[in-house]
């Protein structure tokens, strides 16, 4: 009898834990950049045993954010590096939901400062559209788009970005109050597939920073510091590695990688498991009560 009560009690506690994890994944589904929580369930004969199995690191779907150059998404492996200004710690995230703060720094919604490597300003001279093809009387260099020329539907080849001129630092692109330009010079900023931030100056495109995108040998060793979105390194994860072979999608964000249909199905099963465990526990109590009455 004691064994039945022990099994039913374990089943109740573990099914409650399962419901909590699955509910967290469902909640995280609506938050961009969220990594779904994984768990491992075993030892059914003793009422079950649930253990933390890290996070799911597969790619989430893409959410277009047209016209917002500060919104970026990693296509493939890797994590953005941001720094907590209060502690000086580096955090790592898949969420590229950035904006420019009052001081001109590129930051996350929480105020974490995006890290990037400053580059020498290698410039590419833009080419305007062919007036014979588009019907314009003269070539205006400002019409050209270095990433996707709207008049030819062909991306213009950029010069290789300049070499690094320092270590990773806060990305600062402050707007000049006198002329409304980034750093007082650039009227527009774009992020290339190579993760390089380019500034457009008249008919030139200049490399400014390269986003600090890193990877880890053991992603499951990372420690969650905020809502399955921000993580920090540990002895188990190892140090971050640079030179990640990945690409960056501009004007887009990565959604949560939780599969809502699967999570909803798992939640239903966990609730049924909890109900069954509760019924077994009630039955065990009833049998115990009957046995006590017979002894008396």
Spell out the key features of this protein:
296 residues, 11-stranded antiparallel beta sheet, two-stranded antiparallel ribbon
Question: How would you describe the overall organization of this protein?
Answer:
Residues 129-147 and 149-154 have low confidence and may be disordered. Helix 1 packs antiparallel against helix 3 (260-295). The chain is elongated and about 95 Å long. It is built from 3 helices and 19 strands. The chain starts with a helix and ends with a helix. The protein has 3 domains: 2-56 and 259-295, no CATH class; 62-121 and 159-254, no CATH class; 123-157, no CATH class. It has helices at 2-28, 131-134, 260-295, and strands spanning 37-42, 49-55, 62-64, 72-75, 79-83, 90-93, 98-100, 106-108, 113-118, 123-125, 169-170, 188-191, 196-201, 204-211, 213-214, 223-226, 230-232, 247-250, 252-254. Strand 12 and strand 13 (196-201) form a beta hairpin. The strands form 5 sheets. Strands 5, 6, 9, 10, 11, 12, 13, 14, 15, 16 and 17 form an 11-stranded antiparallel sheet that branches. The protein has a two-stranded antiparallel sheet with strand order 1-2. Strands 3-19 form a two-stranded antiparallel ribbon. It has 296 residues and is of the alpha+beta class.
